[in-house]
Amino acid sequence: MNIAALLALIAALVSGVGDVIRQRSAQEITDEPVGHVELFRLSLRDTRWWLGGAAAVVSFGLQAVALLVGSVVLVQALQVTALLFALPVYARLTRHPVTRREWTWAALLAAAVAVFVTIGEPAAGQQRASLQTWAVVVMLLGPALALCVLGAQLWSGTVAAVLLAVVSASSWALFAVLTKGVVDVINDDPWHILRAPELYGWMLVALVGTVFQQSAFRASSLTASLPTMTVVEPVVASVLGVTVLGETLNADGPEIFALGAAVAVVIVATVALARGEAATMAAGGERSAPASRRAATADPEPWAWLHTSAGAHSSGSPSAVRAQGAPRFVR
């Protein structure tokens, strides 16, 4: 197996575990309506957020090495498999069995990703782009994301969740592309990293992605934010990989149609799986509320620390109980 593909799959596994933990933190941290920055500040006081964050750091590290030897298109395509790894993790934590429907979509997603990687054979391009190229990206993407944030202020509910998810996913897509440049500089001469413009853009988009990720989680049901994040990040990253870094897909003739079909199946299966998991698990958390309250006086289970919020922001209100079944399977 290609070393970049192997590292990307391991990164997706780690990401899937961390995302489940971090999503539960985001949904249960407080019942009060708070702004993007305040929600991020509250998250910093939650032990589970830090545990999920540690998993994300490990995943990012593995992705960085994979990007050093592979393409953004390849690495990002394999990141959607975090959904597959998160399925059994969430089932173990909540004792909520994975349905036949979920396994069916999971199998379709795995098969489509395998076809895409095998037929497309994504090839890496250059490691870094010029400042002029990045200026064009900023001029095109910056206003679009700013309008998404403005729209989330004007509308609420599902629309706000989708818009904020687009901002977060696009930021993480930029993070993936910039990672190639950062790793390339470190690999050539670590002492030059502070002079690399990619480093500062890399840190900025990571912060933006994290802040708006938490806000998207809370804006509405996960059936809105989860599919959006899961699909938008690899799509935007792949487009940037091709247009900014000159990456290519080695397919022609009939293979192009097979590749297009695989991409379509990946998107449909990802959306269906993400929406189904979010809805089913949210309902499961609501049904299990009475049992959770009864368990409060019983002996703690081995995984009990994942089911209660850390610190003074914990709440047993109905809204917090409903959120307990809602995981996040995207970075």
Automatic annotation (TrEMBL):
Highest taxon above the source species: Bacteria
Record key words, sorted: Membrane, Transmembrane, Transmembrane helix
Transmembrane feature ranges: 50-68, 73-91, 103-119, 131-152, 158-178, 199-217, 256-274
Record region (Disordered): 308-331
Low complexity bias spans: 309-320
NCBIfam families for the chain: DMT_1
Protein's name according to its UniProt entry: Integral membrane protein
Species in which this protein is naturally found: Mycobacterium botniense
